[in-house]
Each structure stands twice: as C-alpha cells, then as structure tokens.
Amino acid sequence: MRLDISLRKKLGDFTFDAAFATETDRVGIFGRSGSGKSTLAHMIAGLIPPDGGHIELDGEVLYSSERRISLLPERRRIAVVFQNAHLFPHMDVERNLLYGYRRTPPALRKVDPAALIAVLDLGALLGRRIQALSGGERQRVALGRALLASPRLLVMDEPLSALDEALKYQIIPYLTAISEEFRVPSLLISHSLNEMRLMSEEVVVLHRGEVTGQMTPEELARQRMGWTRAGYINLLRLSPPQAVDDLYGYAFGDCRLLMWAGRRGETTFELSSKDIMLFKGHPEAISARNLLHCTVVSVSAMENRVAVELDCGGQTLIATVVARAAEEMGIGPGTKIYAVIKASAFRPLF
Ligand SMILES: Nc1ncnc2c1ncn2[C@@H]1O[C@H](COP(=O)(O)OP(=O)(O)OP(=O)(O)O)[C@@H](O)[C@H]1O
C-alpha cells in the first residue's frame, strides 16, 4: 500500500502534528501512552475530524483540508479493530462475521468467508453467542468481521492489549496468516515493542503527537536495547525442529540450536542477550547444550554493559556482557568467539 499522511489536531492541551509516508503493507505505529496513537487511528478511519492536513491511500485522497475533501468513514473502506472487540451482542458469531461481508458489493469482496473462518479457526464457534466467547475468541471474531468487509486497510488499535500473554501469542500467528493469505494491508497501533517486532515491517514512532522516527522493527529494538532492564531480546524465527535425544534441534544458519522448550513445536523464540555467555577459547566439559562458533560483528557501549553483535554461521545474535569483561577478553570486530547458551534459555512464543 501507499499511505501518505500529514495531520494536525488540537485536543485540549494536546497537539497532534505528525507526517509520514510509507509503502509497506504492515505498518506499526509505536508510542507511549498519550503519544497520540488512537487519535491518529480515529482520524485515518474518519471517526474524528482533523484540524488540517491530508490522508492519501493508494493515490486516493481520503482527506485534504486544502482541497476540502473528507470522505465519510464508510467510503474510506478502512476497518478498525479496537482493544475490546465491539461485536453485536444480539447476533451469533456467524452473523457478526458476515455483517460487513453482506454489505460489501460483490465486486469488492476479496476475502472468502470459508477461507477466513478456516484461517482464524472459527468453524466450531459459528453458532455461539458472543457472551459465550473468551476474550481471545472475541478478538478473532472482530478481526474476521473487519476483514470480511474487504477493507483497503485494516487499522488495529492495541488489538492485543486486553489479552493475557498466552492468548496474545495465540492470536499473533493468526494475524500474520491473515496478512499473508488475504493481502490486506494493516496499520498496527501498539506500545509494545514485541508486537512491533512480531507483526510489522516498518515502524513509525510517535512521541507527544509528533513523528520522531521511522525504521524497521529491528532497528527500533536495537535503538531501545539500553532503555529497559530486560535489555535486548533476540527474536528467533526458526523452521520446525527435529527430535535430538530428549531435546529439539533447530537449524540456525550453519549451526544447530538445541532446546528443551519447544515441546509444542513452537518456531518463534525469545532469547535474552543476557543469556548468551562468551568464551574466547573452546570451553571444555560444559553443561550448556549450545556452543556456537561466531565472529564478532560490532561492539557498542550501553552504560556499564556492551552489546556484542555476533555472526553465528550466517545468523545474527546479540549478547550483552559487562564492559570490563569485553575489555579483558579483547573483543572487537572480527574476533572469533564461542557463544554458549543453555537449552533452557529459549522462551517459546508460538
Ligand atoms: N477529547 C479529548 N479532549 C482533550 N484531550 C484529549 C481528548 N482525546 C484525547 N486527548 C488527549 O490526547 C492525547 C493523546 O491521546 P491518544 O488516545 O491519542 O493517545 P494514545 O497514544 O493512543 O494513548 P494510549 O496508548 O494510552 O491509548 C492524550 O494526552 C489524551 O489525554
């Protein structure tokens, strides 16, 4: 999609004045609470009027103060999914799902209900009342209903915030499958770096109503690695594993990672940069199951620690170690090093 936005809006003491353009199909809007994310979502969907500016989607002007254009929300064909699924309580799941579909002219329908129901795994729920659904199921129905209206853009305003961790990671693969299968561009609003990394290709950073950056989710994660106590988290997307004795083996570039965490066949893992130990020489007789031969790509300082970017058989990992240790080991770009990781250090997401 091509989205070009420049908008101004004053709300009490808060001033929104932000501009960005993107050509990616999965855009993330990232910012802290109160940075103006929801205000932006509402203006894009036509739910609140901007004070000025323009919105262009794939070459069509949805709003332009200069040209006095402001398409009605229904003419914009932008679907919005909010934090709490707003479903029709008097209709069952199926009628909720088909609500927008039936109102979409056949020529514009590009999402097949049966295929969507399969992707979102809603087949068994079609006859259920909305009150009898869990939070995660409601959110899946809300997504399904939004997509069946075949929108040109799906705006998701903190769609996972109301869900607990486990449910959140159940929904994310569905969202990814949807965007791959039905090719509906999306704009995801969230204050979660994790969600940005898992679900967007490009991130627009909002701060106090202004755009302060536009970058890849990986760049955002690296930029923020010194900002939180958790530090940098490596995100690993791997192919399905093979059983190796009582562990699971995952291909990782030219290396293999052994874990005992992937019991349910998960392929996406988090690995804290703090859980990677570095050795200058080959350590003897260690209990950790993963010993990767890597080359240091870069070393960057973060307060009293350093982040060491490693190339491990063609894959990247970032380890953080205390600055003194890196100094004593003489680590610098090009240093050959062993990275040691316990099989239990990998956190399976989905
Ligand atoms: N109708 C209003 N009148 C006055 N101020 C408002 C109004 N609506 C929103 N604001 C203020 O505008 C700012 C941006 O709000 P917005 O909801 O867009 O932020 P947000 O980034 O989505 O936050 P959150 O992540 O907490 O949902 C906030 O400071 C909010 O208090």
Automatic annotation (TrEMBL):
GO terms for molecular function: ABC-type transporter activity; ATP binding; ATP hydrolysis activity; molybdate ion transmembrane transporter activity. Keywords: ATP-binding, Cell inner membrane, Cell membrane, Membrane, Molybdenum, Nucleotide-binding, Translocase, Transport. This is Molybdenum ABC transporter, ATP-binding protein. Residues 1-233 form the ABC transporter domain. It comes from the Bacteria. GO terms for cellular component: membrane. Transmembrane segments: none annotated. The keyword Repeat does not apply. Residues 285-350 form the Mop domain. It holds the Pfam family ABC_tran. SMART domains: AAA. The gene is modC. The keyword Transport applies. It comes from Desulfuromonas soudanensis.
